[in-house]
Design a protein that fits this description.
heterodimer; A: mainly alpha; 11 helices; B: alpha/beta; Rossmann fold; 4-stranded antiparallel sheet; 10 helices; 14 strands; ABC_transporter_ATP-binding (chain B); transport (chain B); ABC_transporter-like_CS (chain B); AAA+_ATPase (chain B); ATP binding (chain B)
Chain lengths: ~250, ~325
């Protein structure tokens, strides 16, 4: 195992994060505050409670998930796409490092960044609303697994993408709608029965539901299914990445 | 000397059917400098990329230091440093960080003293905290070399290291290459500049359309294939060569005041004495005589051209490697 190599990639990726710390820090704080102003105060004051939880607090897990997922994807996809774009990937391909180590470095750094942002949002949210955390360990587990699995997905997108436009495409066209329709801002039980069934095909539902359970001890779907969904998604991403490196798809000619 | 790099039956074909390398065989000895010459698109970069692991071979085996580059890729790549042709660098990173990154990537523990030594040798130490995008083109190329040296390779590939580099920097690079050779590093460089190969290489390989046409000791190559020319300066210009000198196949220069005689240095008899006698018998008065050895460039152009005509005639050319 080339640990020096893993660490080199991790540090290099984190350096980019520290270089743009203000953007990394300010943008989630600002967008979370905006959500609270709009959904929490303006609209939320008319909604009162959802499933016995104050609406302002109810949307917090969804907001954190939204950022952790999109940031995980964009950090990892950008992280591996940039060397491809610049041509610096030659060094990665000629180094005595295997694909597990490359993935560990890039995905590890991307997951760290999105976790950091998740924690920042959690902290910002705590300033606005009372936030009980019923199952702190489960909360941490969900956050870590979500950031990791979406960073893995971002890594795949970064390898697949041939342009900056494609890089933005999946987060914009797939992830954001799935999160918004995945119960980030409402409970599935508020939907008409037919939409409740359709929604269950949205994988993000399970993540948000499970994450919300760790806060409020109440969930749309059983917690075991939530954990199974995130584990399954992680495994799927790992399988795709293993295939990419075995065939050299879009990396090695 | 033993071979540190061995390429056997290496073939690289792309999906569109283009065959970039056709059964290349190449042995490189430890500690030597091999210059790989070839026209654009000959397969120089593909060969290097395949050895370094950037491109997957279609067929054939490559060993570096006895380690197979596929089955034992870690051990093989540990020995290799690559300076690519394109200036591929992260623009916003500091010089020293990008060099440290390379060392780490190759699994080596941090060694600031070594990095300092390398940066000083390449005149980059003053720029260590500068961002890459603040550097000139020549400086960036040095950074690429520093990155490759940071992990102490035994075999160094330089893919057109002096393309687009000014004369002074080119000389500096040659000095760096000579220093590396002195420390026992094996160097394989590709170049368009024949004088570069002539100046620093021990052996020269010529590659064309994915085939190695020959690999030969530089001195021997020049001696074997070198034609020498004897230019005889005349006291008064002439309009045509006297019929008595026809057997020497002389050429008249443009001004008409010198005749040029080509001869093979390897020939048993060069024919110079008889020529000079014949010239004075023909009534011509010579004022000066000089000889000129054909350069590697002429040899190279001749070789590639020869292969081209051979190909047209037979549709095939045996590799002389």
């Amino acid at each position: 195992m080339n640990w020096h190599g893993v660490l080199a990639i991790y540090r290099f990726e984190m350096a980019r994060f520290w270089r743009t710390l203000m953007q990394s820090f300010l943008s989630p704080v600002l967008s979370t505050s905006l959500y609270f102003v709009v959904f929490g105060s303006a609209i939320g004051s008319r909604i009162e409670e959802v499933e016995g939880i104050q609406y302002g607090a109810f949307i917090v897990p969804g907001l954190i998930m939204l950022s952790v997922m999109t940031q995980g994807i964009s950090n990892a996809s950008f992280g591996i796409y940039f060397p491809k774009f610049l041509g610096t990937i030659y060094e990665l391909l000629s180094a005595p490092i295997d694909h597990r180590e490359i993935v560990l470095g890039y995905v590890g750094a991307a997951a760290t960044k999105s976790l950091f942002i998740g924690v920042v949002i959690l902290g910002t949210a705590a300033l606005f609303v009372d936030l009980p955390v019923a199952h702190p360990w489960a909360m941490i587990l969900f956050m870590v697994l979500t950031s990791l699995s979406f960073a893995l997905m971002g890594f795949i997108i970064g390898i697949w993408a041939r342009s900056f436009e494609q890089l933005q495409l999946v987060p914009l066209l797939v992830v954001t709608p799935l999160v918004f329709l995945g119960g980030a801002f409402y409970s599935i039980s508020m939907l008409p029965p037919i939409w409740q069934s359709i929604t269950l095909f949205n994988p993000v539902v399970y993540l948000i539901s499970g994450f919300r359970w760790s806060f409020f001890d109440a969930a749309d779907v059983p917690i075991a299914i939530s954990l199974g969904a995130i584990a399954g998604f992680t495994i799927l991403c790992l399988v795709v990445i293993a295939w990419i490196f075995r065939t050299g798809w879009r990396i090695r000619s | 000397m033993s071979a540190i790099l061995s390429v056997q039956n290496l073939r690289k074909a792309y999906e569109n059917g283009f065959e970039a390398l056709k059964r290349v065989n190449l042995e490189i000895n430890e500690g030597e400098i091999l210059a790989l010459l070839g026209p654009n698109g000959a397969g120089k970069t593909t060969l290097i990329s395949t050895i370094c692991g950037i491109t997957l071979p279609t067929e054939g085996t490559i060993t570096v230091g006895g380690f197979d580059t596929q089955s034992d890729f870690r051990a093989a790549r540990n020995l290799i440093g690559l300076v690519p042709q394109e200036i591929n660098l992260e623009p916003f990173e500091k010089v020293i960080n990008t060099v440290r990154f390379s060392r780490g990537l190759f699994g080596k523990p941090r060694n600031d003293a070594l990095i300092e030594e390398i940066l000083k040798k390449l005149s980059l130490w003053d720029k260590r905290d500068a961002r890459i995008n603040e550097l000139s083109g020549g400086m960036k190329r040095r950074v690429l070399i520093a990155k490759a040296l940071s992990h102490e390779p035994k075999v160094l590939f330089l893919d057109e290291p002096t393309a687009g580099v000014d004369v002074e920097l080119r000389k500096d690079m040659w000095d760096v290459v000579a220093e590396l050779k002195a420390t026992g590093v094996t160097i394989i460089l590709t170049t368009h500049y024949i004088e570069e190969a002539e100046a620093i290489a021990d052996r020269i390989g010529v590659i064309r359309r994915g085939e190695i046409l020959l690999v030969e000791d530089k001195e021997r190559l020049m001696a074997q294939m070198g034609q020498k020319e004897l230019e005889v300066q005349l006291s008064a210009p002439i309009t045509e060569i006297p019929a008595s000198l026809a057997t020497f196949e002389l050429r008249l220069n443009d001004a008409g005041d010198a005749v040029i005689y080509s001869y093979d240095t390897q020939g048993a008899r060069t024919g110079i004495t008889t020529l000079l006698n014949a010239i004075s018998e023909a009534g011509l008065v010579l004022t000066d005589v000089q000889t000129r050895q054909s350069s590697l460039e002429e040899i190279f152009v001749g070789l590639v051209h020869e292969a081209e005509t051979d190909n047209k005639e037979t549709g095939n050319k045996e590799t002389a490697a």
